Amino acid sequence: MAAKLRIKCPHCKEASNIHTIQDACPECGKPLNVSTEGCIYIYRQGSPMGVAGRFGLYINEQPYGYIGNRELLCLPLPFGTYVIHSAVGMSRKCRDLQVTISPEHPTAYTKVYMRAGFWTNSFVVEPVDPKLLDL
Ligand SMILES: [Zn+2]
Question: What backbone phi and psi angles, to 5 degrees, belong to 32?
Answer without folding.
Answer: -95, -25
